[in-house]
Amino acid sequence: MTTVLKTKTILLGAAAAMALAACVPGGYTGANNPDQSPNANRNSGAITGALIGGAIGATRKGDEKLTKAAAGAIVGGLVGGAIGAQLDRQAQELRRDLTTNGVSVVRSGNQLIVTMPQDVLFATDSASVRPDLQRDLYTLAGSLNRYPDTTVEVIGHTDNTGTAAYNLQLSQRRAQAVSNILVDAGVPGYRVVPIGRGESQPIASNLTPEGRQANRRVEFVIRPNR
């Protein structure tokens, strides 16, 4: 290996180390999930960004390939880390502000999933959001407005009571009704995507009342645009 190549290899390794070292939290584990750092999204974003940036740089031709890969790793790590840190902040704020029993906020890679049970939003067999149950939607809208560089999928789910066709239609109407409230609260319509899944994606058994209740829900999947 030539001296130049060795130097470039060292640069690439240093870039990766810098991207990762800037994001490792030092072993802290959060109270909500003892197996996951509160900076997990930031860390995972930084690692992904560094790898992508390095790969982009490594595809360049010529003697500067490794140097460009190192630069790509640094830039990618910084961008990915910033996105992950934003998701961490937004998740913490939503957990603090969404206090209704049964509402959950879960980090899953580079996205947040907010789940609201049907009973938090709708009466049985209805697609009209109860006026006295809209507070959490306005809280969520406020969060989306504070973090404008994201999109949100509003996904309606039902249990298997009734026909599949009716449940699909009901879930679509519910997703649209919730999306309309977010837009009315100031979230631009192009950022909100209503989707109905009907009974096709249960998270519990439909053989018990408790399982059917869990399956009747609206999920908000928040994703960064970058």
The residue fraction in helices comes out at 40-55%
| Main sheet: strands, sense, barrel | 5 strands, mixed
What CATH architecture label of the domain at 102-224 applies? 2-Layer Sandwich
Could you name the CATH topology of the domain at 102-224?
A: 60s Ribosomal Protein L30, Chain: A
Low-confidence stretches: 17-38, 69-73, 75-79
Q: Just give the CATH class of the domain at 102-224.
A: Alpha Beta
- Fraction in beta strands: 5-15%
Number of strands: 5
Domain OmpA-like: 109-226
Main location: membrane
Protein name: OmpA family protein
Subcellular location: Cell outer membrane
In short:
With 226 residues, the chain is of the alpha+beta class. The chain has helices spanning 3-21, 40-58, 65-97, 118-121, 135-146, 164-184, 209-215, and strands spanning 104-107, 112-117, 150-157, 192-198, 217-224. It has a domain at 102-224: OmpA-like domain (60s Ribosomal Protein L30, Chain: A), CATH 3.30.1330.
Q: What report would you give on this structure?
A:
By secondary structure, the protein is an alpha+beta fold. The chain has a domain at 102-224: OmpA-like domain (60s Ribosomal Protein L30, Chain: A), CATH 3.30.1330. It has seven helices and five strands. The protein has helices at residues 3-21, 40-58, 65-97, 118-121, 135-146, 164-184, 209-215, and strands spanning 104-107, 112-117, 150-157, 192-198, 217-224. A hairpin with a 4-residue loop joins β1 and β2 (112-117). α1 runs antiparallel to α2. The chain is globular. It starts with a helix and ends with a strand.
